[in-house]
Each structure stands twice: as C-alpha cells, then as structure tokens.
C-alpha cells in the first residue's frame, strides 16, 4: 500500500528513485540504468573556485609578510623569558618567529589589562573627585592632582575579573 506522499517525493526529483527488484527482463541486451544520489557533478568538482582561491592567496601573502616582520621585531618581553615559560609548560619549538609571536600576544594581553585597569582608576577618581573638588583650593598643585591617577589593586582586580582571572587575596585567619 502506497501513500500519495511517497509518489510525490519520488517524482519531485530530490532523490532519484531506487530500482526495485522485479522479474527478469524479457530483453537481456538492455540493461537498466543505474540510479545515483544527486550531488555535484565531476565537472563542478574539477573547476576551481576562484573567489576562495584569491581570498586564500591574499591571506597567505599577509601571513608571509607578517612572519617576515617578526624576524626583525624585538618584543618587550625578552626572548629568554618567553623561552623559559614555554619550556616550563612543555612547549618545544625551534622557530624564533613563533616564540616572538607568542611574546607579542602576551604583551598585548598585559597591555589590554593595564588599559582596562587605568580606565577603572579614572572612573574611580572621577567619581570620588566630583565630591571633593569644592573643598580643594585652586593653584598649580591642584591642577597636577587632577591629572594624577593612582592605580590600586582594586582597579587591577576589576580589570582582571573581566578576563576571568581572580586576583583577590584569600582572607587571612588566625
């Protein structure tokens, strides 16, 4: 018993109909055609995708230029320090450019944390400074105090918390 949905699905052409076993054909010379699943034809597979190839070539060229720049770059974190910590975690690599790339990533990470901590300190100073400005006298010392920002451990802890790092000291019990 067949349903109308089965006949419509086969005639829709989404999947080619599968041959059903039947009685032997009266014409042995004629073979039944083999049915295959739809997919990309071999002519489509052999044709290169020029947009993807051009994009990949551009990325490869940019990476090669960046690696050449790393040859001449001396990061702020010395190579010996980077090598020490990489050796400590079990990372072995002879490529100096890769070590410099990791050093550059660490430098960027520390720089981002310092910038976030500075922003927290500025916000804290502006919030506290708004209330006490009326009591301060005007003069050259007062102008210098307004531009001076002090980084506290609370500012650094707030910045580190944004990156998922807990820097709070454990409470001390006696």
Describe the structure.
The chain is mainly α. The protein contains 7 helices and no strands. The protein has helices spanning 4-12, 42-46, 50-72, 79-88, 96-132, 140-147, 153-162. α3 crosses α5, α4 crosses α5 and α5 crosses α7 (153-162).
What is the radius of gyration?
A: 35 Å
Low-confidence parts: 2-18
The pLDDT mean sits at 75
- Approximate shape: extended
Largest sheet: none
Task: Report the span from N to C terminus.
Answer: 84 Å
Helix content: 55-70%
The ordered H/E elements are HHHHHHH
Class inferred from helices and paired strands:
mainly alpha
What is the number of helices?
Answer: 7
Write the layout of secondary structure elements.
Blueprint: H1 4-12, H2 42-46, H3 50-72, H4 79-88, H5 96-132, H6 140-147, H7 153-162
Helix pairs in contact: 3-5, 4-5, 5-7
Features:
single chain, 7 helices, mainly alpha, extended, 174 residues, disordered N terminus
What's the short version?
The protein is mainly α.
């Amino acid at each position: 018993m067949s349903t109308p949905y089965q006949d419509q699905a086969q005639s829709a052409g989404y999947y080619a109909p599968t041959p059903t076993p039947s009685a032997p054909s009266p014409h042995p010379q004629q073979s039944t055609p083999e049915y295959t699943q739809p997919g990309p034809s071999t002519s489509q597979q052999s044709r290169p995708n020029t947009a993807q190839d051009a994009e990949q070539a551009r990325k490869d060229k940019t990476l090669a230029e960046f690696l050449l720049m790393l040859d001449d770059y001396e990061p702020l974190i010395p190579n010996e320090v980077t090598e020490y910590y990489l050796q400590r975690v079990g990372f072995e690599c002879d490529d100096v450019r890769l070590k410099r790339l990791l050093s550059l990533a660490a430098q960027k990470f520390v720089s981002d944390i310092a910038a976030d901590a500075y922003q927290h300190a500025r916000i804290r100073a502006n919030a506290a400074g708004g209330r006490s400005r009326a009591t301060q006298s005007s003069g050259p010392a007062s102008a210098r105090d307004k531009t001076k920002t002090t980084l506290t451990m609370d500012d650094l802890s707030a910045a580190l918390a944004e990156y998922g790092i807990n820097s709070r000291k454990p409470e001390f019990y006696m």
